[in-house]
Amino acid sequence: MVMSETTDSPIANPVNKSLENENIAHGEPKMRARGVDVYYGDKKAIDGVDIDVYTEYVTAFIGPSGCGKSTFLRALNRMNDTIPSARVTGTIELDGEDIYASGMDVVQLRARVGMVFQKPNPFPKSIYDNIAYGPKIHGLAESKPDLDEIVEKSLRRAGLWEEVKDRLADSGTALSGGQQQRLCIARAIAVDPEVILMDEPCSALDPIATAKIEELIDELRGRYGIVIVTHSMQQAARVSQRTAFFHLGHLVEYGHTSDIFTNPAEQRTQDYITGRYG
Amino acid sequence: MNDAAENVGPTRTAAFEARLKKRYAAERRFKAIGLGAILFSVAVLIFLLVTMAMNGIGGFQRTELRVPVDFAATPVTVMPDTSDERTVVQSLERQGLRDIIEFSATQALGEEGAAQVNSEAWRLVAQQIAADPGLARGEQVFWLPTSEDLATAYAGDGSTDLQPLAQQLAADGLLADNFDFGFLKRSDATDPQLAGIWGALKGSILTMIVTLSLAFPIGVLAALYLEEYAPKNRWTDLIEVSINNLAAVPSIIFGLLGLAVFLWIFPSYRSAPLIGGMTLALMTMPVIVIAGRNAIKAVPPSIRDGALAVGASPVQVVFHHVLPLALPGILTGTIIGMARALGETAPLLLIGMRAFVASPPQGFTDNATVLPMQIFLWSDEIDRGFVERTSAAIIVLLVFLLLMNGLAIYLRNRFEKKW
Amino acid sequence: MSASTLILLVLGLGLAGWLAARSRAAMFRRANDGRRIASLPVYHGWYAALWIVIPTLLFALLWSAISDQLVMQQVLASPAAAELPSFGIQRQTWLAEARAVATGAASGVFNPEAEGLVEPFREALTRYNIIGLVVTLLIALAGGAWAFLRLKPDFRAHTRVERTVLATLLIASLVAILTTLGIVASLVFETIRFFGMVNPIDFLFGIHWSPNPMTDGSNPDPERYGAVPLFWGTFFIGVVIAMIVAIPLGMMSAIYLNQYAAPRVRTWLKPALEILAGVPTVVYGYFAALTIAPAIRDIALKLGVENPSSESALAAGLVMGVMIIPFVSSMADDSIAAVPQAMKDGSLAMGATQNETIKRVLVPAALPGIVAGIMLAISRAIGETMIVVMAASATARLSANPLEAMTTVTYQIVANLTGEASMDSASTLAAFALGFVLFLVTLVLNIIALRIVKRFREAYE
Ligand SMILES: Nc1ncnc2c1ncn2[C@@H]1O[C@H](COP(=O)(O)OP(=O)(O)OP(=O)(O)O)[C@@H](O)[C@H]1O
Ligand SMILES: [Mg+2]
After folding, report:
1. What does each C-alpha distance from B314 to C45, C168, C170, C171 come to in angstroms?
2. What's the helix, strand, coil split of chain C in %, to 5?
């Protein structure tokens, strides 16, 4: 891995000035990205992005389609490793450890940084087995009662327990779209990750299901660091405390959600959130 | 979950990491097993090919004796205007060529050696003379096939009493294994020294011509119908199920069909390429249909819409635009189907294409056999000579199949969806 | 008059009709001062050509099917035929020889008795050839004339042509149904005859198999037609032994190719598997008989097994398994590749390793496709003929010892149809009954498998 910047360099980007004060207020961020570039073959999809993710806040990534939100998100738990042409440079740290360092274990990393995808992708297994999947492979439960407990707790946290407790043996794919997405969130929670990345988790859902997920995200805040990619300004405004605006692979602006939406520093941000392009 | 887990997360405990090591070991094991599985298949393939090649090399050779013949002392005449090989051979037989050869052999090899010259050797000399009358003048050296017994003894097994003779003759430079180009030009024979595969090869070619000319048009037309015109109804479903099922029905069933139906209609064409080709065509047709449908499906609808928009009729759209684009895919499927038909034996066994055919078939209705059948028939012979000839025939068959499959792979790579 | 010259003649006539009709239509156009006529001239050409070619071809097909019988009838009616033995192989040979001489395929008869039949054959052949030729020409003329009379400037030739084309396409696709019907009809017909001699219960549940080709149909020995040992041998070789080899190796090969192999390795290994699939079964059979079977026997001897068979079920089964590997592997490969990437991503994003993802997510998700593939592989294994004909044995035996000789359904079909028995003997008919059982079993396997595959594809589309 090529490091373009040393780990502890101060944030150079002027628009991120306000964050430095946050650092003082909240100690170290959970994840810290500095000078991250992502390439697909020769094509640069992400160019020099610096971002901090805190457990206390939900961070939203917004930006027009194709600007690299998903690409960057996938860099945060090395899901880009599964794409042969993808290459990441710069540093991304989790609790101060470089996740692209050779000592970092991908399996462990992904257990610590979970991910929820745009389209709900429950495994073709029972609801129970979907949730139990992570704990089982990671050996987090010593006994069946242990596992039962994890499953119930995860489903409860995901707000799905009441709806499915009588049919845990049914296939996960038999649930409605919104339930499936909450199932996927429950599945991610089940291994007790430190950060959860969500890539447009509501784009395949109706407003009621969306509202439920948003509620859920709010409840999970503080326990897990949450990053959510969304195309909906309203959603970003509703669920996040920090917002990052991407454009053509660049991080244009990153700051308090309220600032970004009411008083953006950049003209491009202003144009995007008022719907002038995107 | 306990409190400690709340603090550091369950995924950062020592237990997790210990387990992780095991999981990685399992990962390596699993990957190695996968690689092993595929290498096993490749190894079997190589072993099979090497076995056949080692045996087959002997099959392309023939043990021959060196016999000088002095036509000056015992003249034979060849009519200069007789072009027909058969007449020449008959005339030479009347002129006592057989005795001339026997005499020369005794001179060159002694009584014992001469007894081991193949009894049909004079005929080969006669054929050579027919091809080149100039040979029948002066002293000529011929390499003549030995008897199968001597060939076996020369190879080091078989009857021990001939082995000293073989060693002696070989030491004198009178006995050797020579490359036998005639193997590709002769037909079946009871003596492995005289057997060749041209008859079977020609039978295969004739059979394949029949198969191709029936299966290709029917297959392509059926594929076009099903993809482009067929209404969604029960009949179409039935056709589809039939085709998919026929593609998976054991080939021997087609043999039973050929036996019960084709041979009942054409009782006098038993073991003719016509019947064999028809039987194999029924087997190949579904393969072509399925490949054809996939190729047609891959032609994007925009091309059809474009053509329809300029006023082409549905039939014109299909024949002028869709079919040419789908053709490479159809051809690939056809070649693969034909390769399968070329290697097929079981159905032909049932319709009687297992006749002993000593001269190549001249037409579609002559008695014939095919290459894989020749392999099967020879494999039943116990002579060492036939074991080698069988492997040699297998090599010839495999070369044809490799060429066909190679062509199919080339076509597929070359024309794979370019739109 | 051979079939190929007849076909050439028909095509030539068609071409003539095509040219004539096209130029006539072009004339209409000129007469119309170049205004459009209802259809392009070339459609008029096709219209005439079709009217010539289709009826004549149909007739030619029919004629080639019946002329043979007609010739035979005339020959048998001739006085020379009275000398023929009334049935049996000799009668067939003499007739075939005389026919070969009469058509010029052979220069002389081998059996002098056939000599007298040559002349009647020649006469009959000439007679029916002339009749065939004349009728063909008449039909071609009539068809051409009919088409020609209908050509007019406002004649919509192209709709007619297109309708014919569509009908041809439909007929071509009906060939598949006809083939299936042909198979079913011939198998059912002969099987019913067989069941007239041997009780189906005895056949399906009897455990003693030793058909006697020499007994005639009127007096079969039903005790000899118990097919259970054949079913067992087929199952043991084709399902048990072959699948023990093919399923794990095929599955693991597919998984390696699909999930682990670098693209460059894949481009080399995949064709290798395809070559393995392309090796003709007769070659596998030879390989089994020549190399594997003796090796197994030697190993068994070394291990102290007494009298191991040189035609052991194990040899045939192992080689059959190897033959099936590429088949299982390609079906499994397709099924695993059809599982959406999202499923795999979901698992990897949870921190699963590659093999955990494969074993717990991909394979279960692809399971219907894999199961269908295995069913098709079984269907292929139990229908496989050459390997067992060359490497298995004729002895029907109920045994679970893979080192013993066993026989299979396909082996017995071949054995009973290529022997000396006449077409109506019980042993011949038994082969058809076995064929019918084989057809039914593979049909069920295929249909279920194809259903599963279809549903599986729809699920992930
Ligand atoms: N696997 C890939 N290979 C090559 N290029 C890719 C790949 N995935 C994405 N890209 C390219 O990288 C750029 C960023 O894509 P990305 O999916 O990150 O955008 P996004 O912001 O998530 O868009 P959307 O809002 O539509 O999801 C795009 O130009 C895209 O074409
Ligand atoms: Mg995206």
Report:
1. 19, 15, 15, 18
2. 80, 0, 20
State the DSSP string of B25-46.
HHHHHHHHHHHHHHHHHHHHHH
Q: Residues with beta carbon inside 6 Å of ligand 1?
A: A 40, 45, 63, 65-71, 83, 85
How long, in residues, is chain A? 278
| Residue ranges making up the domain that contains B388 | 198-415
Cα–Cα distance measured from residue C234 to residue C170, given in angstroms and rounded to the nearest whole number: 38
Touching partners of A (3+ C-beta pairs < 8 Å): B, C
Q: Which two tokens stand for residue C151?
A: 């050509």
Nearest to B9 among A105, A112, A153 (CB): A112
Is it the case that residue A79 has pLDDT exceeding 70?
yes
Say yes or no: B30 contacts chain A, CB-CB below 8 A: no
This complex has an ipTM of 0.90
Ramachandran sector of residue B9 (left: φ over 0; alpha: ψ -120 to 50; beta: rest): left
Q: Which is it for the CA torsion C172, C173, C176, C182, positive or negative? A: negative
Q: Are residues B390 and B310 in the same domain?
A: yes
Q: Is residue B72 part of a domain?
A: yes
Q: Are residues B66 and B30 in the same domain?
A: no
DSSP lists the bridge partners of residue A49 as A36
pLDDT digits (tens, 9 = 90+) for C8-38: 888 888 898 888 888 888 887 777 766 666 7
What is the C-alpha radius of gyration for chain C, rounded to an integer number of angstroms? 30
Nearest CA in chain B to A108: B11
Residues B143 and B224 in one domain: no
From chain B, pick out residues whose CB is under 8 angstroms from the CB of A192. 1, 5, 9-11
Domains and CATH numbers, chain C: 3-155 (no CATH), 222-459 (1.10.3720.10)
Q: Confirm if A157 and A217 have CB atoms less than 8 A apart.
A: no
Inform me whether the pLDDT recorded for A13 exceeds 60.
no
Residues B44 and B85 in one domain: no
- The answer on B155 and B105 residing in a single domain is yes
Is B71 found in the same domain as B27? no
Residue closest via CA to ligand 1's atom 7 equals A40
Contacts of A150 in chain B (CB under 8 A): 1
Cβ-defined contact of C351 to A107 (cutoff 8 Å): yes
Buried b (16+ CB within 10 A) or exposed e, B44-61: bbeebbebbeebbebbbb
What single-letter amino acid sits at B295?
A
Atom in ligand 1 nearest the alpha carbon of residue A64:
25
How close is the nearest chain B Cα to the Cα of C372, in Å? 12
Q: How far apart, in whole angstroms, are the C-alpha atoms of residue C409 and residue A79?
A: 53
B189 within some domain: no
Would you call B18 an interface residue with chain A, using a CB distance cutoff of 8 Å? Answer: no
Residues B51 and B70 in one domain: no
What is the total count of domains within chain B? Answer: 3
Q: What is the strand order of the sheet B61-70 is part of? A: B139-145, B61-70, B175-179
Question: Whole-angstrom Cα distance, residue A193 to residue B158?
Answer: 77
Nearest-CA distance from B372 to chain C in Å? 6
Can you tell me the distance from the alpha carbon of A277 to that of A269, in angstroms, rounded to the nearest whole number?
A: 10
Contact assessment for residue C394 and residue C159, using Cβ atoms and an 8 Å cutoff: no
Number of Cβ atoms within 10 Å of the Cβ of C397: 17
Per-residue pLDDT tens over the stretch B133-189: 777 777 888 888 888 888 887 877 766 777 777 777 888 777 878 888 888 888 888
Residue identifier of the C-alpha nearest atom 14 of ligand 1: A68
In this structure, the answer to whether residues B288 and B210 fall within a common structural domain is yes
Ligand 1 atom closest to the CA of A246, numbered from 1: 21
Complete domains list, chain A, with CATH: 18-273 (3.40.50.300)
Question: Does A77 contact C at CB distance below 8 Å?
Answer: yes
Query: pLDDT digit string (tens) for A62-73?
Result: 999 999 999 999
